[in-house]
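Input/output pair, single chain:
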Amino acid sequence: MPLRSRSRRLRGAVLALAAAAALVAGLLVGTGTSQAATSQPCDIYAAGGTPCVAAHSTTRALYGAYNGPLYQVRRSSDNATRDIGLLSAGGYADAAAQDSFCANTSCVITIIYDQTGRNNRLTQAPPGGFQGPAPGGYDNLADAKAAPITIAGHKAYGVFVAPGTGYRNNATNGIAKGDQPEGMYAIFDGTHYNGGCCFDYGNAETNSRDNGNGTMEAIYFGNNTVWGRGSGNGPWVMADLENGLFSGVDPKLNSGNQTISHRFLTAIVKGEPNHWAIRAGNAQAGGLTTMWDGIRPTVGGYNPMKKEGAIILGIGGDNSHGAAGTFYEGVMTSGYPSNATEDAVQANINAAGYSTSGNPDPGPLTPGSNVSLRATTACCTTRYISHSGSTVATAVVTASSSSTDKANASWTVRAGLANSSCVSFESRNAAGSYLRHQNYQLYLHANDGSALFASDATFCPQAGKNGQGNSFASANFPSRYIRHYNNNVYIASNGGSNTFDATAAWTDDVSWVVSATWA
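Output:
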């Protein structure tokens, strides 16, 4: 390593350690959970000599002095919009403002504001090499209610990206171009991902098209294996450098890039001339693991880089929009941050208090919770809704069942894909695949991003028809409920021309106990 490079990094490390000390001092100010740290991630990056040039969050301020809007929502009842700000300067999102504004209607996130003052805000992604699913080729906007969490005990919402959802800014200010150095981090839901292309946050092409190797540098999260992979079965934090998802220098495999799926996940990618790194860790506790730190990929086109400086969230550089994920906060920097600076930022993230506990709306059907669905009919109280491949049926599951059988009977509750007041059930061991009905029978299918799929995979819970647990009405056939019949699972009405619509035992067969997940 050249002497000048070592000197620069040493200086950055010293400054970052000073920032970490300032952070600790800030955390000691005040004793209540509503007291924000006086030094937030972008203050720490600035102290390390690598200031933020984009800062996005729907959960909290990323500067200690920031007191502007975090994001904007639009409600469907009258298309009115409202900016959602902070409870106090440097603090946490005012989720109550969203709840009040969006009460009794649905809302989408229309703008994610940039806290740096550079106006690098994110809005609905326009059409590109891949056209979007919404009218005019634009991508869908995220359901504003779909990802509730708490941070320091305060309710907040993330950005829930279902396939077809995407945000972008193609006319930015200060984002790295060419081979200029930069860093970026994001906080994701490490349990919400799929193998689609591409759940990204970071630097992309300014024309929404694939402009060749090295024209991107973005964080990717998921278990796509088309271009490359890490160890295990994924998901992995990788870098989308265009025409490749890279886990390290080898275009196909970096065994040192570990499978990582913390509920709240810190993901980092940074790059400078012929040098880049991937780091990741648990956003709730602990430090960062370096998954790669070395030269650029050895295939052609990535040294030097040809970054263009757009910003994307939830999509690939050419608007590929088949991925899923949830975003809470992230920044992009000018300059290559030192590990010491990033370690101080990680300590700040740990202290922020991301959690799913203490949710103001607790319960087994809270989006993000993991559940199993047990039958209540007298014959079948050891049977759970389960899948084998795409086939869905009820299966006996006990403590002595195999890990595979337990996983097949386990589901993650998501806000309803077609109606956020209802729910969808995502498989715990087939990320991106949901319970959906087709010709009245239930299957496990991958979310294709269509409106039909969203409706078929959305179910509205009610009190159990037999007085036990819950019954689940189909969103698009509201007189039909999830029912088991001869161990198969359908949406069934109480009487009708199909054998599974039989009235006998109907109230029992459509009632399910929502229990702790088997896996």
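DSSP finds seven helices and 32 strands in the chain. Residues 3-27 form the longest helix (25 residues).
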